[in-house]
Amino acid sequence: MGKLLAIDGLNIVRRVYEASPEPDSAEKADIALRHALSSFRKLLATHAPTHVLAAFDFGGPTWRHALYPRYREQRAPMPTFLRDALPGFHAKLAGEGLHVLTLPGVEADDVIGTGVLRWLAEGRGDAIVASTDKDLHGLIAQGALVWDHFKGEWHDDAWVRKKFGVAPELLVDLLALMGDVTDGVPGVSKVGMKTAAKLLNAYGNLDAVMAGAGILKTPVGERLRAEREVLYLSRQLVQLKTDVRLGVTWNMLAFETF
């Protein structure tokens, strides 16, 4: 059986870059990308995959911006020095035997979600996602595992339940209810993680929560009813697009240790 390693490229690069307190510069970008390349090599050595999907955000507007123009409007843009150095970094990854995927109109998360679910549906073996992005943890419900490269720890069903208070299959509904300030996903006002988890565990899923909200005579019930459209918009925004045309074959993503 095979083993797919899906790497959230910018998740690694941005965290390495931002770990340095120095001001933005070409030198800082160069140093960060050298460290990031070492991180990629360590991931490959640690997991010994048969196939690697290295996904990076293309940049610019995506289908989520078309759905909600204010999506990510508060997020700081990528530093110019780092953005300009990325093509060279992609070339170095190609030199390591990796096929980098960066597709316009979608996020790296969508690329990873599509690839991982396709791999698992075809019964090709294990699927590992290297990322700390909470949105990708929903893939655990389909049989994937998430690897936190920075802490060197596995994230599985039990980890998600302990961290978020719900099962992995309810993570999208949880994020829709509580929103995401980082990405500008509105959610329901004054509903945090604990309240969202309590609602989902009591009712079963988001649709059941909303069915019950009609008779929920509390301030939370009132907000759920009043913000129904915003809530379902939020769910669309946090849900992975899993039908992306990747434009690659498994053979193109095959990885061999040199």
From TrEMBL:
Pfam families: 5_3_exonuc, 5_3_exonuc_N. SUPFAM superfamilies: 5' to 3' exonuclease, C-terminal subdomain, PIN domain-like. Keywords: DNA-binding, Exonuclease, Hydrolase, Nuclease. GO terms for molecular function: exonuclease activity. Transmembrane segments: none annotated. Residues 2-256 form the 5'-3' exonuclease domain. InterPro entries: 5-3_exonucl_a-hlix_arch_N, 5-3_exonuclease, 5-3_exonuclease_C_sf, DNA_polI_H3TH, FEN, HhH2, PIN-like_dom_sf. The keyword Hydrolase applies. This is 5'-3' exonuclease.
